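so i finally got all the pieces together for this one. its two components total, 231 residues if u count the protein bits. some of the lines might not be protein, just check the labels. i wanna see the whole assembly predicted at once instead of chain by chain like last time, that was a mess tbh
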Amino acid sequence: NAGVTQTPKFRVLKTGQSMTLLCAQDMNHEYMYWYRQDPGMGLRLIHYSVGEGTTAKGEVPDGYNVSRLKKQNFLLGLESAAPSQTSVYFCASTLEGSSKTQYFGPGTRLLVL
Amino acid sequence: AQSVTQLDSQVPVFEEAPVELRCNYSSSVSVYLFWYVQYPNQGLQLLLKYLSGSTLVKGINGFEAEFNKSQTSFHLRKPSVHISDTAEYFCAVSDQVNYGGSQGNLIFGKGTKLSVKP
């Protein structure tokens, strides 16, 4: 099992450009999450999904959209990138909510100029 | 709303010394508690978690944590650290009640960077 994978690993964007980050998991997990990590801020939840075809907003959803068309994939989109979206993005998944451990991907470093 | 406070942003310690990383939380409902570790340029990995039962929880790599409900704390300890323990450690809380599918959502502290020196 590859676990949770993220594509790409690193990307540089210009302000106003768009891009999509892909998260894939092969553990048949129901729940998937997108976080951003900024220095001194810990991880903050952007959006999450409790199953195929469903998504919900987290703590910092503005400027991002997500889709969960297939159970194994969770896409994070930036329609018009801003320098404030420079961050490291982590995807995670878990079998179900509550006490189940979240498994994290290796992260995507995004730099917006 | 829940919140997590990690009281130290950086903890330097010498190899083979004991270490304690402090975590306090606030919540109006019962919670589950977690410690994750992040090695440089990697994702997060679960160290240990408290769900119920014994308040002393043992995790991987010799770490343990104690849940103290009265003090709303979940401090992480290791009796003797190694160079390889150098990493950032995150405390996280998850509520036990399902609010419209939010059950299981983690609230993270801001992290504590542990630096082990030879």
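The first strand of chain B starts at residue 3 and ends at 6.
Chain B touches chain A at residues 4, 9, 32, 34, 36, 41-46, 49, 51, 90, 94, 96, 98, 100-106, 108-111 (CB under 8 Å).
anyway lmk what u think
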